[in-house]
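Hey, can you fold this one?
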Amino acid sequence: MHELEGEVFTGYGLELRVVTMADLPVLRRWRNSPEIRCQMVDTTYISPKDQRDWFESMLGCDWQAHWVARFRNVRVGYMNLKGDGKLSSQPCLDGGLYIGASSVKHGLLGYALALLQLEIVFEHLGVPEYRTSFRALNHSAKRFNQQLGYTEVGRDDDFIWVRITAVEHAKAKRNIARYFDNNRRC
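Sure. Predicted structure:
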């Protein structure tokens, strides 16, 4: 069991809850959609058994956490954090997120989810650095990460790796947070 098990995070109009068995069909549908699947490191099709095996493998795991994001009680996205041990005792975490197809459409959902993810990393867990990667050809992801304050730390033909610290996040957050009202809602 990880230290964030059962923890609900809210902010920017979103609510994050730990992934449950009931979320698996939606997550699988999103993950297998061509728009999302082609951006992943592993682009293979996920079967129902693969999805169940993934879910069962993360139960009781203290080095990763997985959430479903909801906006106005509708599932809108997925987010994860991973480390090499207990999440709060790491010098750096990595992870990812995506917005899935849902009945809710809002241009700021990705920013809301990313801001909430970084608040968990820096403010809740107290981890000093976060890293992630995206496909080198995904120019939208590059702009998105630059606006969030990330700096590039490596690349190859397929992926670009970026990092952000708490200080960089605080600076970029001030610029982006203005798009959210005082209640931090989309």
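The beta strands are 9-11, 14-18, 64-71, 74-82, 93-99, 129-135, 151-155, 159-165. Let me know if you want another pass with a different chain boundary.
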